[in-house]
Amino acid sequence: MAGIYIHIPFCRKRCSYCDFHFSTTFSNYREELISAINREIELRKYELKESIETIYFGGGTPSLLTEEELSSILETIRNLFPINQEVEITLEVNPEDVNLETITYWKILGVNRISIGLQSFKESDLKWMNRAHDLEQGFEAVNLLKKQGFENISVDLIYGLPGLTLLEWEQHLKQVIALNIQHISAYCLTVEKRTALNHFVKTGKLKTPSEDIQSEQFNLMLRVLNQNGFFQYEISNFAKPVYESKHNSSYWQNKPYLGVGPSAHSFDGKTRRWNISNNTNYYKNVGTNESWFEMEILSKNDQWNELFLTGLRTIFGVSKTSLSELGKLSSSEIKTMGSLKEQGELVETENAYILTEKGRLKADGIAASFFRI
């Protein structure tokens, strides 16, 4: 099975914490960019031989797509690739774009999973984040989606926010649980360069919490969500049984996927490629079939490192079979595995090496200890 990711680089406003590739001034070339996305899909129709199991519209703000734009992209994909009958089609949306009209055409076009960016249940947070929605719009959007028949809804939340207390974070978790949705993605706030948030922190306007406070909020989240029927299948992702994101899971299991649109990444197991992060250059180059991407061939060491980096973040762990295809654990790596087991941070099964809940708190650091250069 394989997946297709479509990056839609349109946004109404610039969120203060976001460093993803997007533009708030796209009206002059909107038609050209959508046409270029469709052309890229056509040019790459032979790159995936497996049937398509997942289609994911990310961004940016894909919910800004009109019915005609969304329909044209999905029609291009369906005309060129074999599609699994139970394909998961995810659309990332913002609350202010959710209404009866948009919900109706999303459903008609086959979207069956919604990922909605609520981010916080604190009005003051939404203001400094420069979000385009308020608290009430967030609640109304989720409830309207449910009322209109969407049964696979994911909500995005951020913890480790400036001034967020443990009690407030617990209240946020209880509020999202009360929405009775199927999936939660919760990310710790990171201060990225070239963002308004970075300026706020440097000038003292906002102060981010310590790592200890962030860890407390993370551990609280694990307890609360586990007690309410969610299981952690990846460090930042929690689902009720059978509602894991198939698309995101394919990333962590190293399945092939095609990424189209400006800044989108692709992976086929042996190579990675990434599109240029400039909207104008992207649509012009795709239109003239000039180079619009860069590519690297992954060495065995690169593949080994990625297995640990992605696998240790999940409940699936690092596959022993995949590792054996690339080499054997060295004596020092075996020693590290033993130490992690003794500390209760890793378990070994017949098929995989898997981090415990305790180990996942340090997943990136543990993964790095197995990296080969």
Description:
The protein is α/β, with parallel strands linked by helices and 373 residues long. The chain has 2 domains: 2-252, Alpha-Beta Barrel (TIM Barrel), CATH 3.20.20; 300-368, Arc Repressor Mutant, subunit A. Helix content is 40%, strand content 21%. It is built from 15 helices and 15 strands. The protein has helices at 30-43, 67-80, 100-108, 123-128, 135-147, 166-178, 196-202, 211-227, 246-252, 279-288, 300-311, 320-324, 331-342, 357-360, 363-368; strands at 2-8, 52-59, 83-93, 113-119, 153-159, 183-188, 231-234, 237-239, 257-260, 265-267, 271-275, 293-297, 318-319, 346-348, 352-355. The strands form 3 sheets. A 9-stranded mixed β-sheet has the order 7-8-6-5-4-3-2-1-9, with helices on both faces. A 3-stranded antiparallel β-sheet has the order 10-11-12, with no helix packed on it. A 3-stranded antiparallel β-sheet has the order 13-15-14. The longest helix has 17 residues, at 211-227. It is globular.
Helix fraction? 25-40%
Q: What is the molecular shape? A: globular
Query: Any idea of the CATH topology of the largest domain?
Result: TIM Barrel
Order of helices and strands: EHEHEHEHHEHEHHEEHEEEHEHEHHEEHH
Low-confidence stretches: none
Extended strand count: 15
How do the strands of the widest beta sheet line up side by side?
7-8-6-5-4-3-2-1-9
Strand content: 15-25%
Can you summarize the main beta sheet? Answer: 9 strands, mixed
Name the CATH homologous superfamily of the largest domain: Aldolase class I
List the total number of helices: 15
What's the architecture of the largest domain in CATH terms?
Alpha-Beta Barrel
Tell me the domain tally.
2
Radius of gyration, whole Å? 21 Å
Structural class: alpha/beta
Ends apart, CA distance between termini: 31 Å
